[in-house]
Amino acid sequence: MVEKQKVEEHYRSDALMDRLQAALSDAGLGDGNLTIEQLAPLDQFHSRGLLATAELAKALSPRANERVLDIGSGLGGPSRYLAATYGCVVAGIDLSESFVSAATYLAGRAGLDEMVAYQKGDALALPFDDEEFDIAWTQHVAMNIADRAEFYSEASRILRPSGRLAVYDVLAGGGGPLVYPVPWSKTSEGSCLLTQDAMKSHLANAGLEIISWKDRTDAALAWFQALHKQQAAQPALPVGLDLAMGPEFKIATANLARNLDEGRAVLIEAVAVKRKVTG
User: 3-class SS at 219?
Assistant: First the structure.
């Protein structure tokens, strides 16, 4: 089992706010409102970035004023996209206090602080009432969670009947053990990938019926290839994911691409609906 403390340590980013504000200033973004597109290289903390968020949202079909819980909200990119694009009201939780502070700051800079809010929280003990949300959203979070049954049970608990769970995660492939480090873990001790069949079983046991299941592995590989070319032409972006995770993050990202290419992992986008209780 992956201890919560170890996960927090992996994502801890000391002095993140100071580095974030300095990087934005150096990029000419020190003042004024920031757009979703300007922030996307920094705050879309998953493979395929903003494109993956937009595709998952399209599969989900959110409606204005629906309440969304972003589980593992990171720097808040997806939550702000849902608020700005669809008019959703979003709560985000994350184990990292520094991520919560940075996400709150960026929401203010994007003019969305009345539609999104963030707090420190545990995905296995969500600090919300039963049936409080219309949508639960999670991207590249479950790979650190060993107790996947409890993870999906908690997501189901906070959903209203017919509420939807949106998932974008890395799963185990059949090509052998992962090559480390990867973005979510330096070693195998911090990684908890499920097979597709195991994930489907856990969702069903939590009362969640899959209505969409798409393999995005090939699309991710094409994206990684384009990213590699971009990095070769422009080695350092003014604001990027390495701002939060450090320069070694590029190695971890390259290993993820290798794992996907060699069939050691797959990338899945899924939407599930909470079944109504009858009788």
Answer: helix
| Distances 155 to 65, 82, 110, 137, 266 between C-alpha atoms, Å | 19, 18, 27, 9, 22
DSSP string, 14-37: TTHHHHHHHHHHHTT-SSS---HH
Cα–Cα dist 149/201, whole Å? 9
Q: pLDDT tens digit string along 165-186?
A: 999 999 999 999 999 999 999 9
- All domains of the chain, ordered by start, with CATH? 4-274 (3.40.50.150)
Q: Residue 210 pairs with which residues in a beta bridge?
A: 272
Task: Give which of 99, 169, 183 is closest to 138, Cα–Cα.
Answer: 169
The CA–CA distances, whole Å, from 204 to 72, 138, 275 equal: 22, 17, 10
DSSP code per residue over 58-99: HHH---TT-EEEEET-TTSHHHHHHHHHH--EEEEEES-HHH
The DSSP H or E segment spanning 192 is none
| pLDDT tens for each residue of 138-150 | 999 999 999 999 9
- Regions of the chain where pLDDT drops below 70: 1-13, 231-239, 241, 244-245, 277-279
- pLDDT at residue 279, rounded to an integer: 40
On whether the CB atoms of residues 105 and 116 are closer than 8 A, the answer is no
